[in-house]
Amino acid sequence: MLTIRAVRVGSKGREAAYHSGTLCSFRSRVACLSSSKITLGREKQAGTPLRSPVWSCNEWDPLEEVIVGRVEGAHVPPFTEEVQATTYKEHWDFFKYRGGQPYPAAHLAKAAAEIETFCNILEQEGVTVRRPAIVDHSMEYKTPDFRSTGMYAAMPRDILLVIGDEIIEAPMAWRSRFFEYRAYRPLIKEYFQKGARWTTAPKPQMSDELYDKNYPDENDPNRHKISDQAKLVTTEFEPCFDAADFMRAGRDIFAQRSQVTNYSGIEWLKRHLGDKFNIHCLSFKDENPMHIDTTLIVIAPGVVLCNPERPCHQIDLFKKAGWNVVYPPYPVMRDSHPLGVSFKWLSINVLMLDTKRVICDVDETPTVKMFEKLGIKPITLSIRHANSLGGGFHCWTTDIRRRGKLESYL
């Protein structure tokens, strides 16, 4: 007779074991199957679940462990329609002629030094830093629907969404990022073996049907009109989303329809998480939405930063709940800075270590002063060269463990 013990893993006091059939024991890292029982993981006493090393419910609880991305091996993505739709026209030649090639070596060397400094500061602040594996992003790959080369493993926030004790691998929407998950698999498997839950969202085909090949460029007068109607370069052919289009605040998760996240992808996550969480779909006055964390960031219970250039159409949701809505100052980054697929509003793409400490850009003096007025200590450094690869401090990280519990804030 086959007997199974199913365990919901989580930190002490959060998740209880539940049983289906007769209790089984944990023996080794490799699952063992016999005619009488299934055993998984390390041997534990009866009724004692593994304690997950993964636990994060929001953006501000005390940070204990984080993944920081890698510069090594970064390649320029091929200039496909989904890349064209999200980059400024003045950068198109760079992507056209360097697509599939490494980023300039001198620039990568400076970016790598900045990220090493970032990691050292995190460790000095008591945070455990983990890094993805180094993989070959230059390799061309082909599926029945498309061919491409890779990009990088620089932005873990784009691909990994941590909800409680679960790591969710986002399906992504750029063809150049189809196999990006491979760099993170050694870490994810380690977390899983130690008790974390691990889910991979359905991988999209990324066939031509997922993209609007006639999507207008940024200078087309129809661009703003159709973006207001949530008509973006990604269609609803199949679910797709980047993890960075979701902002966590306990049981409330804020999502946006963007160039890389469609309504089908948001609906998939909503059904997957179930009634335990409320997913609020927000929209902004933004003709090129891509990743919510340069538009809206929740930095503490009841405190949200809202980009004044991209006003939120549902801002009353926060105001009626009594939240403090803070409009940060305009960034000081020069227009001439080479950002590629990034935006100047990386000034608010910050990493909260807790409600009293924040890592932010040393050159963004007005933003630094804003945090000081809010009673938050800024820990400052520059990652300007790393910014050019596509993100700020929040983008370059995924928090794996924060010390706190799951609560409601709305």
From TrEMBL:
It comes from Saccoglossus kowalevskii. The gene is LOC100366449. Homodimer. It is found in: Mitochondrion inner membrane. Its main location: mitochondrion. Its EC number is 2.1.4.1. Belongs to the amidinotransferase family. PANTHER family: GLYCINE AMIDINOTRANSFERASE, MITOCHONDRIAL. Pathway: Amine and polyamine biosynthesis; creatine biosynthesis; creatine from L-arginine and glycine: step 1/2. This is Glycine amidinotransferase. Catalyzes the biosynthesis of guanidinoacetate, the immediate precursor of creatine. Creatine plays a vital role in energy metabolism in muscle tissues. May play a role in embryonic and central nervous system development. Keywords: Membrane, Mitochondrion, Mitochondrion inner membrane, Transferase. Gene3D superfamilies: L-arginine/glycine Amidinotransferase, Chain A. It catalyses: L-arginine + glycine = guanidinoacetate + L-ornithine.
